[in-house]
Amino acid sequence: MSTIIQAAIFTAGALVGGGVTAVVINKKSASRPAVPPPTVDGTIVSPAVSTVAPPVIGLGTNGRTQISEVSSVASLSSSAVLKYGHPGPIADPIIRKAYVAAYDRRLRHPAWTAEHLTLASLGKSVLITSPDESGDRSKSAFKEDESIPALFRARLADYFRSGYDRGHMVPAADAKFSQEAMDETFYLSNMAPQVGDGFNRHYWAYLEDWCRRLTATFSDVYVFTVPLYLPHQEPDGKWRITHEVIGSPPNVSVPTHFAKVVLTSKPSSPSTPNILELAAGAFVLPNAPIPDETPLQKFVMPVEAVERAAGLALFSDAIKSSSKHICQSTKCEVIVRRFDDTRKRPDMRRAISAPQ
């Protein structure tokens, strides 16, 4: 990663450090007791400021990773100043079959998305019988998310002739276990504008494929996708954030960068299945064409840098201190597969495999 990008992402932290702090919502939380706070050696790992929600992923009392339940920031609703309503900002929580997310009403795309990938969830486990139904991308269609208030909703017309792809934050290929799950990845609340040729259809797709392939090595793979707005230094020496807005009237913001943040776990040894080996890493890619031969490690950034730039708390300090870097636990290398060319040219399908 160039020093310019490193400087930009740390500068962005100072500019948007007051952004949304969000937690993943457990889809089964309604039927479960409250999850205890993460602990390390019997000590509760708590945020430095009591009004900040806990991290998304922490360590449970049994030493295993756990996803936090909903935990709201201290409410201001009791203030007399807000007796007639709270203006926000609000990040709409989204709970789907294959992922959870928070939707940014101002930018009209996800603030973040989160997935838990396993061999079973991808339909590749030899121990679990695959369901009779499976997702077929050709049966899915892009659609507006009517659960988002109309005033803040991304619309199909916004992307029409915009020059940008409707870029999945959670890829459809991660939700092949049912048609409903795959269909849910096509909501515009799971999209952000991405450069098509050289990025969404190519290098970004290679990175998504790399995330899925991690399940062959690790028992659990958590993947966060985070749109970013990073400043660049202009000739006058000042740092500025500039980005396009698509739609007529302008409606959906175009991120300057995207981050993939992964956390993996596996038993440290066959004899100690309850002691996990953790690995984590973050990759920040510009929303621009990237040559196929570019090494993935060029885009490595500290997890803390992404958190600071996005205003998010993804992992607890305990998780960070207990984790190896992902590139020390597995090969950080994408496989170049021209997925879009394969669709266009049936004669290439034998030589180039489609995404799984």
Structure description:
The protein has 356 residues and is an alpha+beta fold. The longest helix is centred in the first third of the chain and has 14 residues. The chain is built from nine helices and 18 strands. Strands 5, 6, 7, 10, 15, 16, 17 and 18 form an eight-stranded mixed beta sheet that branches. A two-stranded antiparallel sheet has the order 1-2. It has a two-stranded antiparallel ribbon with strand order 3-4. The chain is globular, with a radius of gyration of 20 Å. It has a single domain, classed as Extracellular Endonuclease, subunit A (Extracellular Endonuclease, Chain A, 3-Layer(aba) Sandwich), CATH 3.40.570.
List keywords for this structure.
356 residues, alpha+beta, Extracellular Endonuclease, Chain A, two-stranded antiparallel sheet, 18% helix, disordered C terminus
